[in-house]
Amino acid sequence: MVEKITLAHGSGGKLMNQLIGDLITKHFGMKEEDIDDAYVFIPEPDTKRFAFTTDTFTVSPIFFPGGDIGKLAINGTVNDLSVMGAKPLFLSVGFVIEEGFLISDLEKILSSMKGAADYASVRIVTGDTKVVEQGKADRIFINTTGIGKFEADIQRRPIEIGDKVIINGTIGDHGISIMAERNKFTFTRGLKSDCAPLNHLILNLVKKFPESIKFMRDPTRGGVASVLNEIAKGKPFGIKLYEEMLPIKEEVKGVSEILGIDPLYIANEGKVIIIVKDKDAEDVLDEMKKTKEGKDAHIIGEVIDKYPGKVYMETTIGGRRILPLLTGEQLPRIC
Amino acid sequence: MVEKITLAHGSGGKLMNQLIGDLITKHFGMKEEDIDDAYVFIPEPDTKRFAFTTDTFTVSPIFFPGGDIGKLAINGTVNDLSVMGAKPLFLSVGFVIEEGFLISDLEKILSSMKGAADYASVRIVTGDTKVVEQGKADRIFINTTGIGKFEADIQRRPIEIGDKVIINGTIGDHGISIMAERNKFTFTRGLKSDCAPLNHLILNLVKKFPESIKFMRDPTRGGVASVLNEIAKGKPFGIKLYEEMLPIKEEVKGVSEILGIDPLYIANEGKVIIIVKDKDAEDVLDEMKKTKEGKDAHIIGEVIDKYPGKVYMETTIGGRRILPLLTGEQLPRIC
């Protein structure tokens, strides 16, 4: 009998996250299938659909190569709305700040949030701040909650054998950068978080290929392997990844090996996995490559009729390796 | 030169809160007059107006007479929407939980949140949970962010000499209950938080008296005196309170005296201050008294042509006492 909340890492991570999720859905009377990156509602009859989503950021350290907790908080919620196909409009911001926090650090974070919001064309419209005693919070936590609007008629479509799996760039950069920073590795020049907003990239695709895109999700906590497992779970198809096509930076590979973790299970903060119709995959890819956030896009896998419900990788030496549903690490406070 | 965030209490409280507020508005490019209990937007041309608001709850202790952090988090955001005149529809919930937190306590809080949401007729539709290491948060923090819809054509109207000030019940119950609990006072039988949702009370009033109600706000942090000061600040009128009409429980008076704090500056969590046209004040009061949340409603003051910009109390012995803009206590982690 589990009596206490434990940290979501190590072998207990998955179970603990499931337990908390189960408790919440049970007490709040939600169904598991209702839980998505965002809640969708129609403000009034005949208006377009809107999306509503929330996320709290507790990343440690709060400043890291490629970003900081503020930029992450803006982009994280922008991305949760974007992968639903909604255009992010408004964000609320809720701060919990520890007594003793440097005002100059707060200013850096606020400035970074404003820059990220402007870059993503989203407006911060309301907020709240709480200060707690020293030792009662770890520096600063930021909640961002967002409202977005569905402009195109994007929707989830049935995934079929032959559909392709696309990612818009390199894998594992955010999580590995945070881990390198925590471990004070000094040999990681060039390694930085991929923290970026996905809305411009995605909304352009959604407009140009409304019928070709079947599913989108940002592979944050749990990484690429977890998102693909969620897609395949219980379905009559499997998902095959081509190892030689996976865009992973050498620095990311290096740190992953030292830490003994697999970049496929590591959080990304500026990436989207897109399942797309086979016949349109190259066109979607070409369109993505024209943009800053999609210039390193790759087709990394496909939906196959073997290994139903599973995700596996065809390795460069011709072998096969099943990528199980997150049994290993789930690093705490990566986002 | 202030370099660090300090706790929002003692004589520095007001200055620190102002400093943080100023930094946020400066960096985010907001104007001070844009900052309200909620942001108002129109989803599409010709639709009704909607409101969007956020609040993070860090109350300590998390369980207290009359409620807990979960009930407070639901009602707090319901009330921020309600005092704008909007009907609360949806809430998001963001948890930060400390490693080691008892699962039985989490279940109590979740159950309490669901009960509060049902009672307020609002739906929890999306959420997020982060677990942090032991010592990196104080048990549990909860962010709630809400969306509401303006059904009646309620709006702020110019306040005039003669307008009456109404409150829907007793003053200072929430803050004083928390302080009594923290100080482990044992003589406070009957003392409990007023934590309650205001939407049913307010929306009924808004429908019946759309033209009579000029201003509403919930006197949470800073209490009744702070809300009235905000209303009077810079205006050509003053606000007079009648001391003998102030509904304050004997237990609240007792604990306040021991702690040396004024209940007029203490947070309430189920109260609304309403400025209403003189001629309709008694009708509004009668309507409020029919409801559970308004049965102890009182007219506690009026808008006068003396002491412009100030709030003062006419005492029971015929004296006058200015109630300044929060120079004294602002207790941390009351909500």
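qc> The two ends of chain B are 29 Å apart (CA to CA).
qc> done
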